[in-house]
# Entry
Amino acid sequence: MERPGEKEFLASYRQKDYPKPSVTVDLAVFAKDGDKRYLLMVRRKNHPYRGYWALPGGFVDPNETTEAAAHRELMEETSLGGQSLVNFGVYSTPNRDPRGWTISVAYLAEPRLADCVVEAADDAADARWFEILAERNEDGLFTFKLYANGAQANAVLRLTRNEFDSLTFTVESSELLAFDHAVIVADACKRIGLF
# Structure
């Protein structure tokens, strides 16, 4: 169906007048074994945040959906495929990535731990299942600690109201977690009922 005047409009449209962000995906993959919960993390092989722990993820390729990118990145970085993914958030805080304007679409998966063997590859130096201990204290702080064979990472966050009157997590402290992944992990923990 032809839309009158659209062809002429598109011929004069200047994309460079509208800067565009990079788009990435991040995956919060939780597994349960008895009473314990585990979170899949990768150690970054490259800058930025080289050596820090991060959620599996990466850049969306041209002509790729975010869901396809999430499946691809999970397989490339951890060798874990065939997961059922649920979109649970979009992260667009300015300066969240030192490489430039980047918006991330976050996905959640909850496979059975017994069905998951992971192996680091691509730009992940290591991939591990971290036991996750999450709690909310009486001061309104949310804490999670991650442990895996001598490696650990943790964060303390506060639930606050932003300028739009929405509740969001604000990082009070974060140790060895890349980018804004402490916030994404906290949102995912809240989503699956750990907080």
Summary: Strands lie at 22-33, 36-44, 53-54, 57-59, 86-91, 102-109, 124-136, 141-148, 151-161, 167-175. Residues 20-191 form a domain with the Nucleoside Triphosphate Pyrophosphohydrolase fold (CATH 3.90.79.10). The CA atoms of residues 138 and 158 lie 11 Å apart.
